[in-house]
Amino acid sequence: MAQSNYELLRFEQIGGSFRVAATGENNCSLSSYNRRDFYKISLILSGGGELFYANRNIKFDQPALIFTNPMVPYSWADNPEINVTGYFCVFTESFLLEGGRMESLKDSSLFKPGGDPLYLLNPAQTEYLKGIFMRMREEADSEYIYKHELIRNQVQLIIHEAIKMEPAVAYAAPKNAASRITQLFLTLLERQFPVDPPQFTLQFKKAGEYADQLAVHVNHLNAAVQEITGKSTTTHINERILAEAKSLLKHTDMSVADIAYSLGFEYASYFNSFFRKHAGITPLAARKEVKI
């Protein structure tokens, strides 16, 4: 199965916060792309395929507009018989909020967990949206001093066009639902790491928080993870936090308090108790062992 970032063949970047690309052009690298930062809007013009998003999947074979956010894992499978063509843009929330007119993307109907990310397009909508993406690419190449604001407006036009549409609703539960939900959980868990304070700190520590992001009931998530892995959701979370804590203690000079903060603990004493419970020693003792 192809990953969600199907081949990026060209991109333009504005201040590290916006990129727009199309298929069928020169190869490029997205080495600085960080899925924890970027939202994505994809315009599929031809080819279709299948989108796997949270605990749902949808097949389509007509033009579509797809909205994905950095906190809900998703993947994309192309139609192997037809080449996929289209455009997409990726951007940070701050890029849009600079205009002062957008609600938080995390709460918007298009990007929030449990929302409907895919919109099927008629010919008129397809041409209209294609024109917007083409103009964004042209502006990204231009020297126009206000191109950031202009591109922001164009992204907002896409968003408002989608809000007027009815989302595709023909979602199906995958046959291997427990396996897929488990993989999505593990992907989202791993996506929290490595922490990189102060910009990136652990956002989700509880099973319920992961369930909210995946738009499933926490009991459903717990049952799926237990069935597939033989471990509870909480065990996976605690083991990954502990592994990150050990790595930070071993490979950085961060204080225990800073490590506690980066891993989502309100107080260092809470982190000390967690570490002692799961590692059998205190964080300071673990750091001393490394230095011996």
TrEMBL record:
Pfam family, one: HTH_18
Key words, A-Z: DNA-binding, Transcription, Transcription regulation
PROSITE patterns listed in its UniProt record: HTH_ARAC_FAMILY_2
Highest taxon of source: Bacteria
PANTHER family according to UniProt: ARAC-FAMILY TRANSCRIPTIONAL REGULATOR, TRANSCRIPTIONAL REGULATORY PROTEIN
Protein name (database record): AraC family transcriptional regulator
Keyword check for DNA-binding: yes
UniProt entry tagged with the keyword DNA-binding: yes
Domain HTH araC/xylS-type: 179-289
Gene Ontology molecular function: any one: DNA-binding transcription factor activity
